Amino acid sequence: MSVTDSPSKVYLVGAGPGNPCLLSKKAERCIQQADVILYDQLVHPFILQLSRPDAEWIHVGKTPYTRYIRQERINELLVEKAGEYQRVVRLKGGDPAIFGRVTEEVDTLRIHGIDFEIVPGITAASAAISQLGRGLTERQVSTNITFTTGHFKDDVENEIDITTLENGGTLAIYMGVKRLPVLMDEIMTKVGIDYPVAVIFNATRPNQQVIGGTVTTIADKIAQLPERPGPGVTIVGEVVRDVETIKPAVNNMPEMVLLTGERTRCIDIAYDIFENGGAALIDDREVSELHPSQHEILTAWLENYDFTSEQIIE
Hints:
Layout: E1 9-14, H1 25-33, E2 36-39, H2 45-48, E3 56-59, H3 71-84, E4 87-92, H4 102-111, E5 115-119, H5 124-130, E6 145-149, H6 163-166, E7 170-174, H7 180-191, E8 196-201, E9 209-214, H8 218-223, E10 232-236, H9 243-246, E11 256-261, H10 263-275, E12 279-283, H11 292-304, E13 309-313
Parallel strand pairs: 1-4, 1-5, 2-3, 2-4, 6-7, 11-12, 11-13
Antiparallel strand pairs: 7-10, 8-9, 8-10
Helix pairs in contact: 3-4
């Protein structure tokens, strides 16, 4: 496929925390109209299946603690694909403008004169606190919020910004679970208050898990887990007080349904499954003319998922 008379445009799209029902309408439309999608590791597979069967899929995810595609290569791919297609979607988990390296990609697009648009998504901290029935700010409890990252480039051991805690606010730490003991020690040393802490793994997904504690206890609680449940965001402050009494129950046997049939007919059924706390994936390899990249990626997904049930959609 080549570019027509219409100019190319790159959409830097936030896929939200993982639950497809939390996609913005704009994000959904961008995915549906995309000619090519460059997607991150944390994007739920079903979200990609909102695209046309002939759209190209390219995985550019950064899996923690493993080799990954360097940001420079992602920037190059954005330019390359903008030369091949009209509608390029760069699909990121959460919000692309919050620890999503969106500035580096925007700078590349500007240098090459490529039109672009940023489409916000629900960020992890907002998704996580929603599952507790609380807010990141609360009148007379917490009137300010800081988003910070616990993981720095090249594993540099930088200190986090805890100014907000010193003023009684809320601290949301992204990508900090691995360094949690160090981060909690830093907070206790500087602030001296054993604030409530919640770590929310896989927020809004069927396998969501919430671990509550305090600055001095949370690291040990996480260390006692048999395995790390997945990506997590850590929230520190009074807004997560009594978290063990208000957190939702863990779904130990989440539904994972394989829907076999024509894609557009399966999508509404899949949304209903997600709304009811399950998850779904569509196998339309026999009935759709899939782009080779979609066929390859979908086949790999189907080999790696354990499905609890299957529905054939006529």
